[in-house]
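Replying to the earlier thread about multi-chain prediction with a worked example.

Input:
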Amino acid sequence: MHIRPILSAMRRNKVGAFLIALQMALTLAILCNSLFIIEQRLTLMARASGVDEDNVFVLTNQWVGTPDDLNARIATDLAGIRSLPGVVDAYPSNSYPLRGGGWSDGVMLADHQVHPNTHTTLYFADEHALNTLGVKLLAGRNFSPDEIGSRAENSLGHPPVVIVTKALADKMFPDGSALGKTIYVEDGPTTITGIVEKLQTPWVSNSFGEKFPENSMLEPYHYMVSGYHYVVRAQPGQLDAVMKQVQKKLLEINRARVMVKVMTYAEVRAEAYRNYRGLAIILGVVCTSLLAVTAFGIVGLTSFWVTQRRRQIGVRRALGATRRAILFYFQTENVIIAAAGAAVGVALAVGLNLWMVTSFEMLRIGPAYVLVGAVAVMLLGQLAVLWPALRAASIPPALATRAA
Amino acid sequence: MFRYYVWLALRSLRRNPVLTALMIAAIGLGIGASMTMLTLFRAMSGDPIPQKSSQLFVPQIDNWGPDFREKSNEPPQPMLSYTDVEALMRAHAAPRQAAMYATGFVITPSDPQQQPFQAEARATYSDFFEMFEVPFKYGSPWGAQGDESHSDVVVIGKQLNDKLFGGASSIGKTVNLNNHDYRIVGVLDDWSPHPRTYDVIDDSFGDAEQVFVPLTVAIDRHMDIWGNNNCSAAYEPGWEGHLHSECVWLQFWAELPDAAQVQRYRSMLDSYASEQQHNGRFHWAPLTRLSSAREWMVLQHVVPDESRILLMVSFSFLFVCLVNAVGLMLAKFMGRSAETGVRRALGANRRAVFMQCMVETGVIGLAGGLLGLALTGLGLIGVRAVLAKDMSSLTHLDLVDVVLAVLLAVVAAVLAGIYPTWRATQVQPAWQLKAN
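Result:
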């Protein structure tokens, strides 16, 4: 294939070629960065919370007024819930993974350290928590019933023992010796009595929580406040039925309460990641529109060129050029333009990403993304040029002999 | 003449329906995407009380010290401790001021048929209502008297009044909050500023609460803290212990009508902090800040990064659409060089050709703008469906948005048309006629 004639033809149509190249460069830059953002969000959304999400639901319970027999009420409620058929287990807590709000504290290796070694979320739990959540105990032991204390509102806890996630244990003791060690939390010492595989914090979609997404600590407490959450695990396949029964049972036990929210874990997850999902969808729609606009733009401009050059094409055909040669001409022309556009686009894409890294909390884009983007944009160009090129190839040689 | 150009433009657009449709679609899509995001962004970064916000200020006092500062010269916490709030209220250094915190309780309706339900509430001072220009339907705020006498009074929102009292005036009646009766002194009209200027820490885009109680009463009754509550150190257990701790959980606003008062308030904050250093509570040089409402919105990062990213991506998309339109217009105008040549030969000057082409791009822009407006409407419905519920109040088109969309489209199309038009005016009539 001779490139020279294509280049000289392009030189006579500099602006058109430049516009297509510019458009492809911009498309590439936007596309790469959008796909990169989408992929990042999807990766974050795909993380497991550590909870047996298919079978667990949460119920937010708010007592009317501030009852002074909370301990007894919680015990009665729990006995009632656990006695229901289809219920595997249940426990009360101040918060749960993906909730969006909860407690956090610094964790230290020494008393009165100025800066904590890391941060963790605090979940209040009893000996039923691990079984309810379905988290795996990797080392150590569960809480025993006599370790569970009552924790008053507005007070610091002094838990004798705590259960931590592997992520938190490894952060504090990178050599893997966390079990049985003393750490300082809530301004006091405590002992790590168990290590669980995984349990996310309540904050999974904000910059605060992303600093320690799996640093969780279970403290052996029932929390004595009028508003808290029951976390309940149902037998597989019985979630819906159990949710209804638990609500009915709780009202039977005591009507002076408001069940503020009853959510399956699927709902909790959807709520937690709603804006991430939204961003991914919106960017996806914009990217699709972008590809469509660019593709149709190429179709439009190339068709125009074909129309403009009908006579020249006819002459070439009359002089012996095959249909394939004409088709190839337009395809090659597009490859040259697209390659120039892609080259500029790669630079733009990286530049845009670097700017976003400094302006937002964003990672550096990988070279694979940019390359895949470049190939995608060039393929798009080929696809878009096909129809006008085929039309050009079908111009009969006889056209050369006719007047315009 | 203008009408003739419009007629010519329409004829020309009809002659080449595919190119025309592509141009209008490109501009429409670009406008649709960018206007959807701009509407969202404008709503998020909006100022619900523009006439007032320049007079509202948030003080910060660093009561935690340098160890907790992320940036060296910024107070680490956006909120205040009860100790400092009490001092600021006592100082009364602004014509109006209001401390506040988020709380909530169970409301038990007097009608036994109605189930008890949970309601979010705000504990604050009476000045709050005038400071944030809260409209009243019935009654009025509880007044300084209510603050000082720790009265069991309450202001409720319109929705709650509709629910409990069928929308009739409930002034003087009582409402049961957590087993205590409170006398209703005021009922608000529809009011829910977005963003929620007075509290952008707990929930920037949520709806305003339906219950407002005097903060003095909330403290007496140990009303739960539902907002952020950050503690730097251990404290005596119980409500009193927490109250006198260095935990920060209260927000504070001061209304300062002029620069002199702002200056005075600043020095008052500094002298208060030095006093705290002298009496041994702070072991560091005073660090205080006073931010206007607008500065506060920026400082608290009210507009999320997501929204900025989307705005940027959508305007880049609009730019691609415009580059696209430039190419298509160029194709169109150059495609009728012969016709332009004839017109020029028949006496039309360059100006006339220029005007004709510009009118044509304007018509395309207008059509693209109308399509873009329709797509913006659709886009906002889509955004409402996929974003969090508290964002949905931000997805309404107002008149400004509509005008902006059409104007943006016409300006964009005309800009895109400048080069193709210029090329069209350069057509040499003699050359074109000869070639034909």
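The longest strand of chain A covers residues 188-196.

Feel free to reuse this layout for your own posts.
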